[in-house]
Amino acid sequence: MTGVILGLMTPARSWVSDRRLHAILDRVIAYPPGEHWNSDAAARDDLNKAGIATREALSPIERLEIALHPWVAFCILPLFALANAGVPMIAAKFDPTLTTAIFMAFVPGKPVGVILFSFLAVKSRLGIRPSELSWGLLAARGLLTGIGFTMALFIADLAFDAELLNSVKLGVLGASAISAILGLLILNWLTSAAAR
Questions:
Q1: Cβ(111)–Cβ(146) under 8 Å?
Q2: Model-level pTM greater than 0.90?
Q3: CA dist., res. 81 & res. 123, Å (int)
Q4: What are phi and psi of 101, to 5 degrees?
Q5: Closest listed residue to residue 110, CA positions, set 85, 61, 144, 78
Q6: Which of 5, 45, 166, 190 is deepest in the core (most CB within 10 A)?
Q7: Distance (Å, rounded) from C-alpha 9 to C-alpha 85?
Q8: Residue 72: is its pLDDT beyond 70?
Q9: Domains of the chain: which residue ranges?
Q10: Separation of alpha carbons 189 and 164, rounded Å
Q11: What is the pLDDT, as a whole number, of residue 113?
Q12: Over pLDDT 70: what percentage of the chain?
């Protein structure tokens, strides 16, 4: 409740309008090249006003969102997801065969399915592969399909007995982490190689 109240109290409008921001920046840009910022007090004052104006052109809630986004995306949400998945962090009884089967279905199985059916769709003329989408990029994106969470865990709750759920959850979460890491690494490598 405190977070909701603070969020509602945070201003959603910027303190500096676009017109005011442009006027301040125009004054700074009007200075000819030189060492004005070190010796001229008026120039330093204009530069300081420009720094404040550029910061205040974004509303406080936008600045807060930008500052909190990395923490929420990479720390809070994963911890929230793990807590809600109900996987015990202590030693528990796991079925390694079931965990491995689920891991293999997600990590190599889903990408192979994506590539195979995409290939069949293109060859049978049911689908068209865009020219900018290489088979390598398609394979890397296929790896990202191995990320499964909400629906996979929901179906596991319906399909498996309670004593097998920890094994299923471990397989799903492990496969999701490996699929995400591999997919992002390969996509990064392919796109950076294409940019060179």
A1: yes
A2: no
A3: 40
A4: -65, -45
A5: 144
A6: 166
A7: 32
A8: yes
A9: 2-81, 90-195
A10: 38
A11: 93
A12: 91
